[in-house]
Amino acid sequence: MQDQDIISVTTEIVGDIALVCVDNPPVNALSVHVRRGIQDAVAEINAAQSAKVIVLYAAGRTFIAGADITEFGKPPMPPALPDLLNEMEQSKIPVVCVLHGTALGGGLEVALASHARVGIKGLRIGLPEVLIGLLPGAGGTQRVPRLAGIPVALDMSLSGRQVAAKEALGMGLLDALEDGEPRDVALRAGQDALDGKIKTRRTDLIDTTPDDAALEEARKMVARKFPNLVSPQRCIEAIAASTGPISEGLKIERKAFMDCLDTPQRAGLIHAFFGERAVANIPEKKATPRDINAVGVIGGGTMGSGIATSALMSGLSVTLVEVKEDALERGIATITKNLEGGVKRGKLSADQRDQMLAQLTGATDLAALSDVDLVIEAVFEQMEIKKEIFTKLDAVCKKGAILASNTSYLDINEIAAQTSRPEDVIGLHFFSPAHIMKLLEIVVGEKTAPEVVASGFALAKRLKKIGVRAGVCDGFIGNRILGHYSKTASYLVLDGATPQQVDDALEAFGFAMGPHKVGDLAGLDIGWMTRKRKAATRSAEERYAGAVADRICENGWYGRKTGRGYYVYDEGDMHPNAEVAKIIDEERAEAGVTPRSFTDEEIVDRYMTAMISEAARVVEDGIALRPVDVDVVFLSGYGFPRFRGGPLHYADTIGAKELVRRIETYAKEDAHYWQVPEILRKMAETGKSFDDINKGG
Ligand code: T1G
Hints:
Blueprint (H helix, E strand, L loop, with lengths): L8 E6 L2 E6 L9 H17 L4 E6 L22 H9 L5 E5 L2 E3 L1 H7 L3 E5 L3 E3 L13 H9 L1 H10 L2 E3 H7 L4 E3 L3 H13 L17 H14 L5 H10 L5 H16 L2 H15 L15 E5 L3 H12 L3 E5 L3 H20 L5 H9 L1 E4 L10 E4 L5 H14 L5 E4 L6 H5 L8 E6 L8 E5 L6 H13 L3 E5 L7 H18 L3 H11 L5 H8 L1 H12 L11 H8 L12 E4 L2 E4 L1 H14 L8 H21 L6 H11 L9 H8 L1 H11 L11 H9 L3 H5 L3
Parallel strand pairs: 2-3, 3-4, 4-6, 5-7, 6-9, 10-11, 10-13, 11-12, 13-14, 14-15, 16-17
Antiparallel strand pairs: 1-2, 7-8, 15-16, 18-19
Helix pairs in contact: 1-2, 3-4, 4-5, 5-8, 5-9, 8-9, 9-10, 11-25, 12-13, 13-14, 18-24, 19-24, 21-22, 22-23, 24-27, 27-28
The structure holds (2S,3S)-3-hydroxy-2-methylbutanoyl-COA (T1G).
(2S,3S)-3-hydroxy-2-methylbutanoyl-COA (T1G) binds next to strand 5, helix 3 and helix 11.
């Protein structure tokens, strides 16, 4: 059966009311058969005059959640949504729309082209198109201003945020708010329209109130916050046109939408959207997760208290264990402060905070963990300490308890071997701040049981995080790749670039913060410890990348926390540390380097080629299941610019052949650091892309 032949829209005549129901699981996306179904239903009811009011509603968990994103990039299939909505708006028989769940994007636009809108309790509406590199493309930029004003249209379409039903009612985007099942509410709404209790009117006949000040403010905000993105500015352009005839405004919106549809950033943002869902597709998907309600967290430092906060915010009970009372109190104080922050940000109410804190108990003895379902160890990154703890946990914890380590690079297999239950041991690598960062690397040991892996993914979903499956190696996915490409930033500085130039070039590429600023923020001493840890095993062929950073740390300059690192932080002011420039000159002289200049493009090319080559090796080694898993790690844990889709999606925009050429060119300077991954060489020969590999090619 062809897509367009699927029946997903049905009409039911009840007296003078025509109920038109959309049923296209899972989210009633506006696939071609849905568009055709609505078009045929409205046309037939008008032709037959079989009712005096049409009520459009949807079955399932939500009203239409938007256009069918899987159709983007494919040949268009009529009717185009804007055309369908114009036809519907001109229907002689009034159309009332009943909304429930998450009515987003094109779904909301269907409602806006209707003649009245009734929300069901719990409804959220939104225009998230900008989050996938687009703008509302079916009249949203023209009809929201007519119904609710230009400021509301700018707020909703530029933030992409979901608006709760009550707020939508206050904005004028809903005419009524009801409770009940969609079909029942639809019948009542139809009768209310017939009785005049709900006023129906054509949106296109309403005039938009001009608001040049709001438009100008929006232009400035977008230029400041999203300098790299195309669609926000085009969205403002379309909304500005809503003060004129709707036919003209719709043309401007359509042109802007079609232009954005073709941009690499639309492809990148949609890759990110689907990628965050694809990573849940793991070999252990069919295993039954174990119930997790009570969690033990060992260590109340930054990570442990962050993890405990995240668990409490998800309704789990937490037992925090520290070695001493004072450390335990500090941990509990940090958790309390984190939750206070949630109240201040409006994420939590004071009551919710109190309920969460009531779920927190503290202890200084591991015996307190005898009944928990999951233990997450978050102590020092020293294998001996972890081994000691896991030996004790093996004796203390109940049968079936999951024993997890938050280690960011140590060998989970070695830790598991300390216990009589290696099948219950797993890595749950959180990213700091753990109650805010979305990424959770789920590190699977050789003997980890499938249901323990599935439990890790169920926990990620419960914590509203994105779980990515990782194999065991030093640094798993993210930190292993970071450990490689971060050397490129150091080599560029040793060879002639300044730290600020490297930071500026990468921030212009789209990173929120350049590597030297990130180092200053996280603390340069962390990298310093890692270099010391690895010194004994470092290859003699490797060009040492840490000379400058070591000297900075030897001066006690660890970054923000000491007031200076690569930069000096002086009461809100931040500028390059002139002392570092002297250190760089001395290290260059010491290494016999004649500094040369680099263009910003060269800096980005080298940095990204290094990141891509190690990412390719991580896929080749099976540490990541697919290229898209690496993309999601970098998008949700390392501040990689979302509109670029992740390192390996970005690699596809360069192509394997060009990447191989670059690596071979750079290898003339340093054959040890620049090596062509086998997987990339094969891709260059076969013409395959990382996306082909994602699709099983
Ligand atoms: N098109 C196709 N598939 C979609 C989809 C969509 N719009 N939205 C979700 N899915 C799939 C998703 O991939 C997953 O598939 C399943 O549905 C459940 O989704 C003209 C042009 C609605 C809040 O951007 O925000 O309209 O993995 O796991 O957590 O101006 O899905 O099961 O195979 O996310 O309950 C605008 C995107 C489109 C909404 C539900 N709309 N979707 O969240 O379930 S552009 C959006 C969401 C547009 C117009 C423009 C969420 C959700 P699978 P899920 P959820």
